Amino acid sequence: MSASTEKSHPSVNPPTAAERRLQKRLQTEADPRWQQVMSRDKAADGQFYYSVATTGVYCRPSCAARTARAENVDFFLTAHQAEQAGFRPCKRCKPDQPSLDMQQMEKVAQACRLIKEAEQEPSLDTLAATVGLSVFYLHRLFKRLTGLTPREFAAGVRAERMRTALQDEARVTDAIYQAGYQSSSRFYERADQLLGMTPSRYRAGGKDTLIRFALAQCSLGALLVAGSDKGLCAIWLGDDAERLLLQLQEAFPAAELIGADAEFEQWVAQVVGMVEQPAVGISLPLDIRGTAFQQRVWQALLQIPVGQTLSYSEVAQRIGSPKAVRAVASACAANMLAVAIPCHRVVRNDGSLSGYRWGLERKARLLQQEQQGNDVP
């Protein structure tokens, strides 16, 4: 018999139950999803589910039940997978049903549809009764998720109907009532803010409206600056100056566009200076046109210091509407006054760049210029 066959091999003992529990605990704790379970992260709801071996149930990450021991936890991508593995839904967080956030969003979406489809603005009592919530709760929930009260949302719907009716060449009086305004006086009180001009002028494409403009070049490319009798109404950036002018003509097809005079040239010089040296700022009047929510967002942007940034969610929190992140992004995209209203200072939660009307490259260069300016002693 050979020497090799005579040698005895040491036996490999299987891991003990305690060792298996330790290994499972370490494996679970190394999974990033475990931290989301530990913190009851609502943002993770719907992304995965976790089961607890000792209770036989599966839960959402945000479940308020007592946190399970890590060695008893397994993760699943869907509720169906957890049930296929033999687990039943938790009676506390009800993971087999839409999440509370989803239910709330559906209630608000239903209220929005009711407002949009109604010929006359429905009362808050009617909305609350239809969606099955109390008046107080619906009002608070609506504002938290949309950034607007139901009345402000209805005002925006009426304003959009008004713009559409005027563009369809309806008579101004007819358009006012088609849009859902109870009286012409209520509309005229806010017409200038919503349209930037009288309804008759808006209907005529800006006829008899005087808009001064000038084209210039800056480090970011072509620059168009336009102003009404109230102040600057457009600061646009692009690669082609002629294209910018064409866009201005399309926006006000019947307005009287005139080249800059000496006074307006000084305004343009200030705008160029603001682009090149953001810390200098701008002291010119601005003709800011937008909905109540958009103006709240733009006012918040004006408070962001040069060289600093905020995330879309942080802006939403500052205006008192933490759930209205998408609406904040839409308001930034609707900004007509580049740099003057610094929507370029709004970034994603991780600091990366997204969503700039005049191109991400320009957004990056603006932020870089502002940061370099702050670094100068």
From TrEMBL:
Keywords: Activator, DNA damage, DNA repair, DNA-binding, Metal-binding, Methyltransferase, Transcription, Transcription regulation, Transferase, Zinc. GO terms for biological process: DNA repair; methylation. It holds the Pfam family Methyltransf_1N. InterPro entries: Ada-like_dom_sf (IPR035451), Ada_DNA_repair_Zn-bd (IPR004026), Bifunct_regulatory_prot_Ada (IPR016221), Homeodomain-like_sf (IPR009057), HTH_AraC (IPR018060), MethylDNA_cys_MeTrfase_AS (IPR001497), MethylDNA_cys_MeTrfase_DNA-bd (IPR014048), MethylDNA_cys_MeTrfase_DNAb (IPR036217). It catalyses: a 6-O-methyl-2'-deoxyguanosine in DNA + L-cysteinyl-[protein] = S-methyl-L-cysteinyl-[protein] + a 2'-deoxyguanosine in DNA; a 4-O-methyl-thymidine in DNA + L-cysteinyl-[protein] = a thymidine in DNA + S-methyl-L-cysteinyl-[protein]. The active site is at C59 (nucleophile), C343 (nucleophile). Its cofactor is Zn(2+). Residues 109-205 form the HTH araC/xylS-type domain. Zn(2+) binds at C59, C63, C90, C93. Binds 1 zinc ion per subunit. GO terms for molecular function: DNA-binding transcription factor activity; methylated-DNA-[protein]-cysteine S-methyltransferase activity; sequence-specific DNA binding; zinc ion binding. It comes from the Bacteria. Residues 1-21 are annotated as: Disordered. This is Bifunctional DNA-binding transcriptional regulator/O6-methylguanine-DNA methyltransferase Ada. It comes from Proteobacteria bacterium 228.
